[in-house]
Design brief:
- With 441 residues, the chain is an alpha/beta fold.
- The protein folds into two domains: 162 residues, Rossmann fold, CATH 3.40.50; 267 residues, no CATH class.
- The protein is 41% helix and 16% strand.
- The protein contains 18 helices and 13 strands.
- The strands form two sheets. An eight-stranded mixed sheet has the order 7-6-8-9-10-11-13-12, with helices on both faces. The protein has a five-stranded parallel sheet with strand order 2-3-4-1-5, with helices on one face.
- Helix 9 packs across helix 15 and helix 11 crosses helix 15.
- The chain is globular and about 70 Å long.
Length: 441
């Protein structure tokens, strides 16, 4: 290890020489308005001999989640910032790094490699550290799944845990409202859900008095820095146009040919851009449900932004929910985002789908949970009586889902339809999404 690198690591990790400096130093890396995150995979983070990948979109709070865990568990890490040229140069050899770490920190010291997508062949390097017998718990963050996960998916099979950090969920926001009286809490949760439909859940935007400014900055960072610099997108204007198209047609079937014509690029280019947006945690491509019936339309996905605030930044529309002309799309997009935050990336049955038949019958979302199939419809109306659409009834008759949920703005009601538990719920029900999807019938 050369002297310049050692000086850099000592400056970034003052607790190496003064362990008592750690708690205070960690506090400086955690926002003062930190909202505790719902990270179930943290139970495995003490496991040595494995890499713990923490991924998500830019500025979603990945590092804050880890520093809070280090602080709460009194585990001072060795912090390595992969944006530093000297760190990238050092990390060209996993064997060398493993040897140097053995002489620098104890075996129980967590190693944190931040922004690992900047490393050359990040997956192979991380695999090399594990295969070299690195005894330390190894934490790796990456702001884009496109760079980090595509290189680690195969090489780290069986060697890594994977945690996706999302923008704030309504459940996480609800957790900091525990001191509110029941009626006040219900009202505040409704307000929070409606605000999420406008500004989303990115920490900087949610906690700001001017969320639109933060979201424009985020969009600019993704388009200019990530898309043009890191992904080497040649047609940045076409990429911006595609973002606006996806935002204006959220919840619609993907039409690559039409979008390619509007953007002035080839079909394959639009496919590539959609892959970048999906792998970068900007959009979700919801695939169709195939239940074995020939009447189903089975090939084209629907597209949603993973955060409503980013969608509205692309549209440049931040009107309150009640004043919007696209309330249906705003509610449906918010439901898609909240459902995506619940699903495990490792459970093959834990997937989000939609259903549409060739006759036009449609159900917005299907969640294939281990406990059974759950269907979800979004209705941006203050319903007054429990009625199901013909499409909903057709789906229930054909597939007998365990539960059918209608998210609406006015009715809270439950009843049985044959073997299906049918519930009309308000948006605030997503403060307990697991109970909504998996709770007793």
């Amino acid at each position: 290890m050369d002297g310049e690198l050692l000086t850099l690591l000592r400056a970034a990790n003052p607790w190496l020489e003064n362990p008592r400096a750690f708690p205070e130093a960690a506090r400086h890396r955690i926002p003062s308005a930190f909202v505790p995150r719902d990270v179930s995979a943290a139970a495995e983070w003490s496991t040595p001999g494995r890499a713990h990948l923490v991924v998500g979109a830019r500025q979603v709070g990945k590092s804050s989640v880890l520093w809070a865990w280090f602080r709460d568990n009194h585990r001072a890490p060795l912090f390595m910032n992969a944006e530093e040229p000297s760190v990238r140069s050092w990390c060209r050899s996993a064997t060398l790094v493993a040897s140097d770490l053995a002489g620098l920190v104890g075996a129980d010291t967590p190693i944190l490699i931040d922004e690992a997508q900047h490393l050359e062949e990040a997956g192979l390097f991380i695999k090399g550290l594990i295969d070299a017998g690195l005894p330390n718990p190894l934490f790796v963050t990456g702001s884009s799944a496109f760079d980090l996960e595509s290189r680690t998916r195969e090489s780290l099979a069986g060697r890594a845990t994977r945690t996706i950090v999302h923008p704030f969920s309504l459940k996480e926001i609800a957790a900091i409202m525990h001191d509110a009286a029941p009626l006040l809490r219900e009202s505040r949760l409704r307000e929070a859900a409606l605000r999420q439909m406008v500004v989303g859940g990115y920490p900087a935007a949610w906690l700001s008095e001017r969320p639109e400014v933060e979201l424009y900055r985020l969009m600019d960072a993704f388009v200019v820095r990530d898309a043009s610099d890191r992904f080497h997108i040649a047609h940045v204007d076409a990429f911006r146009t595609l973002l606006r198209l996806v935002a204006s047609q959220t919840g619609s079937l993907v039409n690559v040919s039409e979008w390619a014509g509007i953007c002035g690029v080839a079909r394959g280019t639009v496919d590539d851009y959609l892959t970048i947006l999906a792998d970068g945690h900007i959009v979700t491509l919801v695939q169709p449900f195939v239940g074995g019936r020939r009447a189903e339309l089975t090939h084209r996905p629907k597209v949603f932004f993973r955060d409503p605030g980013v969608r509205n930044a692309a549209l440049r529309q931040f009107q309150p929910f009640a004043d919007r002309l696209d309330r249906g799309a705003a509610l449906e997009g918010w439901v898609a985002a909240e459902l995506a935050k619940v699903l495990s990336p490792l459970a093959p049955l834990d997937t989000l789908r939609y259903w549409r038949s060739r006759s036009g019958a449609e159900v917005d979302f299907l969640v294939e949970r281990p406990a059974g199939l759950v269907a979800v419809e979004a209705k941006a109306a203050a319903l007054r009586r429990p009625a199901l659409s013909r499409s909903s009834r057709s789906f229930i008759d054909a597939y007998h889902p365990r539960r059918f949920v209608v998210v609406n703005l006015g009715l809270d009601h439950a009843e049985r339809m044959n073997d299906t538990d049918v519930r009309w719920v308000l948006p605030e029900a997503f403060a307990g999404p697991h109970e909504l999807l998996d709770g007793p019938d």
